[in-house]
Design goal:
The radius of gyration is 24 Å and the shape is globular. It is 33% helix and 21% strand. It has a seven-stranded mixed beta sheet with strand order 7-6-5-2-1-8-20. It has a five-stranded parallel beta sheet with strand order 10-17-11-12-13. By secondary structure, it is an alpha/beta fold. Belongs to the NADH dehydrogenase family. This is FAD-dependent oxidoreductase. Keywords: FAD, Flavoprotein, NAD, Oxidoreductase.
């Protein structure tokens, strides 16, 4: 009620009576800020409220499109949404929150400017906190993983992996050493969830097509291996559709290994728990995620898995003026009959939670009652490459082309802004009319390399005999 009085009583031109700090520019951060700026339009215009979004990147990445970006079906710039264009009434601060002291209502932030100034992180004060830093890759102490592994959570990693795969085909085509050729054409993916399966399926599709333009590489020369520690893949689409996905992948000569772990990838050799050894220059790690490290640097309550304890109203449990949703939040699932069950940390819940989250923040500021987040999981869709997919939605099971079409329609409807929807649809249409792009632009990762070489230096991460097109160091990473 105090906040409501502040909103009504402040006159234009005075400092904002309410400062809303949004930490994170992903699904939850962007959608929450977007809905807040719509619902608080008058307050923002009059200066009674300000919304500050802290994000390490100036864009939101629509992660379900990363596999298609890696395969070249979508341009990388159309997988991301520019925050400054979408959040016109918000203040965007590029930086990383390193700590939050909610008792004092302060957040410690390191920005590009603080690094240049040498002054160290700055403290930002706020009245309401929306904490949505998302998640990071969950890694294990596998020998060689840090040196040779490639992640698949960002658009940079997706495009880097595409360039890397094509570059390995170039190496295999030009080498005279059978061992180097075999390692270059062996691709190991660890993790049988959405990210791993879709990335592998799309890239295998792309590489199979690309092989036709090499005089000495056939599609069957490429070896694709999917390693999954559990006894199934794609658990979200159900057991039956998961088994179908395995059959589909194996029919494409993809080696799917269940109940198997990656024990080591030192010296560019993938050693699996079943005793198999695969010389490889490509190990892609997609074995799950964990909460962002920021959560451990706050005074907010966490559960045993490191996620914020939240209520069904999306408030942080036992704390005033703190809100959370998405990967960082452990939100009770009020639609479940199972006691203590939480909503799954996926995009379907995250996007829907932001609607309730924004409405509840506005209701809190105006002294109105809060709503509970209640959404029954409707199912999932997954792509297995061009014209192939699986889906389990509202109890109905689809596979093949219908599931692939549903996958595209669903995600096209979910990608933010009409601008992005139109551009993605146009690219899909053009890709159906023309041939795939098979060019590797790995040199973009080191744009100054050519000039440094001309100036008498050496290409970053390269020896003097590295061919011009090379863009990766000896680690096999991107």
């Amino acid at each position: 009620m105090v906040k409501a009085a502040n909103l009504r009583g402040t006159t234009p031109g005075t400092p904002p009576s309410t400062s809303i700090l949004v930490v994170g520019g992903g699904y939850v951060g962007m959608y929450t800020a977007l809905r807040l700026q719509r619902k608080l339009k008058q307050e923002l215009d009059s200066g009674r409220v300000e919304i500050v979004v802290i994000t390490p990147d100036p864009y939101m990445t629509y992660q379900p499109f990363l596999p298609e970006a890696a395969a070249g079906n979508i341009s990388p710039r159309h997988v991301v949404v520019p925050l400054r264009r979408v959040l016109k009434r918000c203040k965007i601060l590029l930086g990383e929150a390193t700590a939050i002291d909610h008792a004092k209502r302060t957040a410690t932030v390191a920005t590009l400017a603080t690094a240049e100034e040498g002054t160290g992180p700055v403290e930002i004060t706020y009245d309401e906190l929306v904490i949505a830093p998302g998640s990071v890759s969950r890694t294990l102490p596998v020998p060689g993983l840090a040196e040779h592994g490639i992640g698949f959570k960002t658009v940079e990693e997706a495009i880097g992996l595409r360039n890397h795969v094509i570059e390995q085909m170039d190496i295999a085509s030009s080498t005279r050493d059978p061992a180097i050729r075999d390692a270059a054409l062996t691709f190991v993916f660890v993790g049988g969830g959405y990210a791993g399966v879709e990335a592998l399926a799309e890239l295998e599709d792309m590489a199979r097509y690309t092989a036709r333009y090499y005089h000495n590489i056939k599609p069957d020369d490429l070896k694709w291996i999917l390693v999954e520690a559990s006894n199934r893949i794609l658990p979200e689409v159900g057991e039956e559709m998961g088994k179908y996905a395995i059959r589909e992948l194996r029919a494409r000569n993809i080696d799917v290994r269940l109940e198997t772990r990656l024990d080591s990838c030192e010296d560019r050799v993938a050693l699996l728990s079943d005793g198999s050894r695969f010389p490889t220059r490509t190990v892609v790690w997609t074995a799950g995620v964990k909460p962002a490290p920021l959560l451990a640097a706050t005074d907010l309550p966490l559960n045993e898995r490191g996620r914020l304890k939240c209520t069904a109203q999306l408030t942080v449990a036992g704390v005033d003026h703190a809100w959370a949703a998405g990967d960082a939040a452990a939100v009770p699932d009020v639609t479940s009959d199972e006691p203590g069950k939480e909503t799954a940390p996926n995009a379907q819940h995250a996007v829907r939670q932001t609607k309730v989250l924004a409405e509840n923040i506005v209701a809190s500021l105006r002294g109105e009652p809060l709503k509970e987040y209640a959404h029954k999981y409707v199912g999932s869709v997954a792509s297995l490459g061009l014209h192939k997919g699986v889906a389990h939605v509202y109890g109905r099971k689809l596979k093949g082309y219908p599931a692939w079409l549903m996958h595209r329609v669903y995600h096209l409807s979910r990608v933010p802004t009409f601008n992005r929807k139109a551009r993605v649809l146009a690219e899909w249409t053009l890709s159906g009319l023309f041939k795939r792009e098979i060019v590797s632009l790995g040199s973009l990762e080191h744009p100054r390399a050519e000039f440094e070489l001309a100036a008498g230096g050496r290409r970053p991460g390269h020896g003097p005999d590295t061919p011009k097109g090379g863009s990766h160091d000896d680690s096999g990473g991107t």
